[in-house]
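Hi C.,

You asked whether I'd gotten around to modeling the 418-residue construct. I have! Everything is below, sequence then structure, no commentary in between.
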Amino acid sequence: MPNDNQHALDTYRPDEFVVALPYAPTIIDRAREFNLTCDPVDSPALGLTLLTPAWRDDSAAVLRAAVDERLTRADRDRVFSVLPPPRQGLRAPLEDLMFCLRYDFAADYGGWLPPMGKNRDVGVIGVPHVDGGALRDPEGAYRPAWADEDKAGGAGVRVGILDTGLYQHPDLAGGYLANRSDLVEPKDPYKHLAGHAAFVAGLVRRAAPRVELDVKQVLDNDRATGTVWDLARRMVEFRDSGVRILNLSLGCYTADGDPPFVLARAVRLLAPDMVIVAAAGNHGDPRENADRGLPAGSEQRPFWPAAFEDVLAVGALTGGDGAWREVEFSPHLPWVTMLAEGDGVVSTYLEGEVEIPTRGTEQFGGWARWAGTSFAAGVISGELAALAEPGGSPLPAVRLLQERARRHPDGPVRLFEM
C-alpha cells in the first residue's frame, strides 16, 4: 500500500513496522480486529519482530474509521496523557494502525504501551551532499602522498563499517573482511554513491594503515539507502566479532525528533563493548536546506544514530586555506561530540566510468575529493584505531583523542563546542 505521507525528512517503509519480540503474538492478534494479518520476521539477537500487514482494499477506510471512533471515547483524555493524538491531515494506513494498537493497549493496561516503531529509511542522504552543485558530488583526485606513507597505526585493531558495498580498491587489498555479497560488482558505469564505503574505508586506513576492516553492506549501491531494521540486524552481527570501533556514516531523521525504536535497541546492545562513531548529518545550513526543499527549522533536527548519548557524533571541519573551521553544513547542535576534516577530503574511490548526477558520466582513477560528515566520521574512526590497544577496550583511545584535541584546539580534530 503506498505511503501517502512521506515526510520531507522522516521516510519509512509503509508496509512494515517493528515490535518487541515478546509482544508480537499479542499485537498480531490485535491487528486481526482490523481484518489484518501480519507476517512476522523475528530477530532474536535484537529481541524484535518485523511485522508486515497484509493490506486489504478497504484497510485505509477501516483504520480511519477506527481512529475517528477512538477520538470520541470517554477515556480519550486519560489515554492522551501517555499517547500523542494522531497527526491531522493525510496519514498512511500504517500510522493509523499503529495509533489504534497503541491506544487500545494504553486504555486496557493503565497507560502501558508495547514497544513498537516504524521501519525507517536510513542512508547517506545529505551525509555527503548528493543533491547540490558540483562541489557536493565527488570530483576526481590524484593519489595523495599519505597513501604511500609507512605507518604502523591500527595493528591488531578491528573496525566495523556498515555502508554501501565495498569497492575492491587495490589500496584497501589485504586489509578488510567482507563477504562477496558485501562487495561492489563491476559496472559500466558505476553510480557515484557506490564508492561511498570505499571512500570511508580509505579515511580509516589513512590514520591506521594496519587496521583490519570488517565491512558489511546495509545500503544499496545506487541510492545509498536502506532500512533501520536491516541496519540494526547487521549492527548486532558485530557482537563478539572482535570489532571495537563501529563506523556508521549514515543515518535518518524522525518526524517527531524521537529516536528510532529499532536503532535505540541496537545501540543499547553494542555500546557497552565498542565505540560507535556516526556522522552528524549535513543539515546545519538553513539556506542549503531551503534550496533542497526541506522544512524550516530542519537545521535543529536530531540525526540518528549520531544523536544517541552513547554514540560519538562527528561534525565536519573545512581547512583548505590552512585555518580549520566548522563547515556550514555541519549541524551545530548539543549532541555533536567531535569535529574532523570533512570538506574536500581525498580518499579511495571507484576506478572507471562513474555517473555524477550534476555532471554526467566521468572517468575516475580510483581517488576522489568529496565533502560531508560521513567522511569526518571516517577520519575519527581511523584516529581512534591508531590510538587503540589491540584486544583492549577502545575507551582509552577516545580519552586520548579528546585530550589531544584539547591540547590542539585549532587542529583538524576538535572537541565540539556550542
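If it helps when you're writing up: The chain has a mean pLDDT of 91.

Thanks,
B.
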